[in-house]
Amino acid sequence: CGGRTGRMDFLDAETRKYPKMAERYQRLADLYQGKLWHQLTEELSEMVSLPECSQGRNLIDLYENFITKFEAKLNQLRFVQIASVIARQFFPSRPVVAREVKDAIEFMESITEKRGRLGEEAFLVAQMAVAELLVQVGGEDEMKHARALMDEAQPLLQLLEGSGAETVANSSYHRVACEYFKVAGPADEYYKSCIQFLAYTPQDTLDPAVQKRLAVDVSLAALVGETVFNYGEVLSQPIVKVLDNTDFAWLHEILQVFSAGDIDRFSSICAANKDAINAEPVLKQNFEMLRQKIALLCLMQAIFVRPPEDRLLSLKEVAHATKLEMDQVEWLLMKAMSKGLIRGKIDQVEQTVHISWLKPRVLDADQLSTLKDKLGVWKDNVDKTLLFIESETPELFQ
């Protein structure tokens, strides 16, 4: 009884300290007294998520003097999510101060110590909250610790697979992976983590500013990632449309150009947006690589639009399509083969290349239209072959 009275006294004191939040504190008191734990969880989740409800250390005080008394009665996953938001109050300074973030880390580590009660999913989400904070500190030891926590999470993710409880856990893991690889690199790993994060995270749950920053970052990573050539994949992500009608609309256009392998349009977009491109260090530093990638993509597109039975190209045709000098064509073909984009054989005597395989990609609308036309031609050829066989060997069809 005394403990319950103490909690009510605390809420009364907070109501007087923060009069604009008086109604919220009163609702917390009413739900607590009524032992309506589900509704109390919802109210706490909403309260901690609102910027206007974060004043000084009020959420930390709320945790220490109120939530700790009944946290075992809450849904443990929601409890961890609430605690993760409260942890942000430990580091109010901007730019972030490492010492303050370490206080938040200690707070979240105290949550992970309750693993037996939390259950595996909530524990993993708490561990990822710790890892995310470690990445914010960014020191060598902290980054190693964060990576170790990510590695430890892999078996847990596999354990949760198919349980119906893996969505939040995967979202938490891949969010941390995004933050980690954004700092540590390489761009390819950051890109993969972003795609996975978006697969497990509804876009409308992200703040508009976060959506835009993520759209920019995943687009930049796709462009400079050495192994990323499947631009239909990133273009299929609704989040890249956030760039339209913004100062980064040109970035969305470049992704579309890369997907189409349109080297002329790439040149025109770069000329029209030279200052914006140079303002992005990662593009400025890797611009020569972008030229090489668009040439490779142009080669892939030139092969894709040809009929399967006509995959013998002269080196002059390749040079014309990719806007390269003849002495660069063989290098381009070898580069494409070494990256696993094509398979084939170069005939240096005949100055031709025979393509036996083209790496599959997610196709855009125009490429799908091309594929549809190819399937139509294939169907016609099959029909003609069938009619020929029927006419030449009628005894087989009697």
Explain this structure.
The chain has 398 residues and is mainly alpha-helical. Helices cover 68% and strands 4% of the residues. A three-stranded antiparallel beta sheet has the order 1-3-2. A hairpin with a 4-residue loop joins strand 2 and strand 3. Helix 8 (120-137) packs antiparallel against helix 9. The termini are far apart.
The gyration radius over C-alpha positions equals 29 Å
User: Helicity range of the residues?
Assistant: 55-70%
Low-confidence stretches: none
**Total beta strands:** 3
What is the average per-residue confidence, as pLDDT, rounded to a whole number?
Answer: 92
Provide a concise account of the structure shown.
The chain is mainly α and 398 residues long. It is 68% helix and 4% strand.
What features would you highlight for this structure?
elongated, three-stranded antiparallel sheet, 398 residues, 4% strand, mainly alpha
Tell me the layout of helices and strands.
Elements: H1 2-17, H2 22-33, H3 37-49, H4 58-65, H5 76-86, H6 98-112, H7 115-118, H8 120-137, H9 140-160, H10 166-184, H11 187-200, H12 208-224, H13 231-235, H14 249-260, H15 263-272, H16 274-278, H17 281-285, H18 287-304, E1 312-314, H19 315-322, H20 326-338, E2 342-347, E3 352-358, H21 365-392
